Amino acid sequence: MQQIKTIAQMQELSKQWHFSGDKVAVVPTMGALHEGHLSLIRVAKKHAQKVIVTIFVNPTQFGEGEDLDAYPQPLKEDMRLCDLEGASAVFTPSAAEMYPKDSSTWVDEAQVGLGLCGAKRPGHFRGVTTIVTKLFLAVLPDYAIFGEKDFQQLAVIRRMVRDLNFPVTIIGAPLIREKDGLAMSSRNRYLNTEQRQGALSLSSSLKYACEKIDEDNQVLLKKLKAQMKEIIEGGQGKLDYIEILHAESLEELAILPDSGEIRILVAASFGPARLIDNVGITLG
Ligand code: PAF
Fold first, then answer.
1. Which of 254, 245, 207, 214 is nearest to 228 (CA)?
2. Does the active-site annotation cover 37?
3. Which residues bind ATP (predicted)?
4. Could you tell me the domains of the chain?
5. pLDDT 10s digits, 217-249
């Protein structure tokens, strides 16, 4: 498996692959890879002969006081895992390679990214859409795989790709959970035993909501959210948001529709780790 560090080399390799008739899929990551990321590589391999995993801790998507400096960077182990999964190459550019000193161009999606994490983390999605654009222009992929764990991020990227006519097919891959239900995240490694136990309240609150909706499709959403809040706070979570939304537009629902896809999203901090989780429900 090759390690590529510069944009020029990455573009050259991708062009060669395309020239030989191969499809190229990219799995953008910030490293600290876990089973969730590896599942994205497996999805990528179903779509393309060549799979590039990008590993870049993108400074522009971290706000002040967030965990940029503490973000884990076990590069050797990440590369070993990518190799084991059969990735064709990893792209590991430096910050200087991705952001020239006088870099002054941003890509900014101005609707889907406004609420939820966008409201709590101003500038976060501008950082994501900008780096994803740069990664696409370096890797020149046919397909890009993103996890549904970051559901809003996936929706923002889909909108950006549609609006800017990127010739890239975006594929959303299912969220992967630990055996006890905790959504896999690189940030789980910040949790001590007690916080990890408390963090299970995120998935429990979603399970509770699914059961209630299954029992009664006229359930009052305000009451349901209040019950979910109790569950999360019972796990000592500092709640950021609980939202019940239309799955595609991410518009808030006042009542449950008779049919269609909805998504329930939660975010809360447990000690040093801000965690997110979500679940999809098909109604009707
Ligand atoms: O989901 C992530 O790990 C990051 O937000 C991404 C898409 C790699 C951009 O830095």
1. 207
2. yes
3. 30-37, 147-150, 176, 184-187
4. 2-173 (3.40.50.620), 186-276 (3.30.1300.10)
5. 899 999 999 999 999 999 999 999 999 999 988
